[in-house]
Specification:
This protein is mainly alpha-helical. It has helices spanning 7-27, 48-69, 87-91, 104-115, 128-139, 142-152; strands spanning 30-35, 73-80, 123-126.
Length: 168
Amino acid sequence: MSGSCSLRSDRSGVDLTRTFLPAMIERGRGGIINVFSTTGFQPVPSLAVCSASKAFVLSFSQSLWFEAKRHGVIACTLTPGPTRTEFFDVIGDGASVVGSFQAPGQVVATGPRARDRRRPPPHVVSGRRNAIAAHLAGLVPRRILVPALDRAMPPATSSDNRGSPIHP
């Protein structure tokens, strides 16, 4: 699945899975690695659509992991944290980032390592700091987490296309 922040790209990932998964099941082998962001572990003001669409990818992929493994097909999610890509050129480097920036090559190397484990996990987070931040996001009450994330993000402007229904 795409790493972009749109419902359309996530729908495309589902469509691609539906296209290729039946042949993998018929062969009794194959692999699918869906990529989503650590934003899927928590709601992020100003990135509402992005964080919600990534939460969809996580839920979809974990269900797929369970269903596919009984057919010999490996399915998992690769979850990078902040990665040095053009995404941060669009939203601006002023955003405080939880975790640490990784190079795209570091993220790409994580997926096959997880897939090739004897018992592939349903998802893997790229980078130790990112894994800790993702885990902690599930422990912090939303009434504390969401305002903190709001303060960490730069204010949206009318020219931003950051994925908020309030700031389209």
